[in-house]
Write a structure and sequence with these properties.
mainly beta; three-stranded antiparallel β-sheet; 11% helix
Length: 139
């Protein structure tokens, strides 16, 4: 009898796990491999020491439009600065608006806390690692 219960319970464990539909792939934004280190002692990045502050970093090494790095209070988020629901164009660099970023192509706002907006694709998120008094953002 115990064998039957075990055989019945094992498939439940395999099918009960879910990834909640998380998918970081976006047909509008290509994948780039990069690694950038931000020293929080430098004046350009010192805003990241405070909760709800963001910085914009643009460089050829981080993608087509740069990245936004944001202090959530419990850690850091890093997102691509290109509009996630628009093809790369002259208007597809998002602008900072408080704790949100806005796509000038369609005036859509995305939260820097969650990366979510109202359209199909959320902001493309990158990995963040805190190393002493520096933050490493990489993909």
């Amino acid at each position: 009898m115990k064998k039957y219960i075990l055989i019945f319970l094992i498939p439940i464990f395999f099918f009960s796990c879910s990834d909640n539909g998380f998918n970081n792939k976006n047909p509008y934004l290509p994948n780039y491999s990069f690694s950038v280190l931000f020293n929080l002692n430098l004046p350009a990045y010192s805003n990241l020491k405070y909760v709800s502050n963001a910085i914009y970093y643009s460089g050829a090494d981080v993608g087509p439009r740069g990245i936004y790095v944001f202090n959530t209070g419990s850690g850091y988020n890093a997102f691509d600065a290109a509009c996630p629901n628009q093809p790369i164009s002259s208007c597809s660099t998002m602008t900072l608006n408080g704790i949100n970023v806005v796509c000038p192509c369609d005036d859509e706002e995305y939260s820097l806390f969650t990366g979510q907006g109202k359209l199909q694709y959320p902001l493309k998120q990158y990995r963040v690692e805190v190393i002493g008094n520096s933050i490493r953002v990489y993909n």
